[in-house]
Design goal:
Helix 1 runs parallel beside helix 3. The longest helix has about 35 residues. This protein is an all-alpha fold and about 90 residues long. The N and C termini lie far apart (about 45 Å). The model has no long low-confidence stretch (mean pLDDT about 90).
Amino acid sequence: MNAAFLFVSTFVLVLALGLQSQFVNNGHPFMAFANSLVIGASNLVLFKLAPDASGLEIAAYLLGGPLGIVTSMFLFARFTGWLIKRKCTNGGAK
């Protein structure tokens, strides 16, 4: 069970870190603020579980990161597409 928690927390942490970079660089302060809470929560789980990790748990931890960053790239591209589409359909109004 800890392996699943380590995978999910690492996946979510790296996903959130990737999104955080995009939110900050693209001027989305509310999203960056909210996303920081996700980063903190994921870190708490890792700090609790990682120090005593077994081999399987370490493998789950290592697999979560690469999948998380690729997912963040995919999601941000969709988020950006949604924003552009929204601006076009609203006549450029925010």
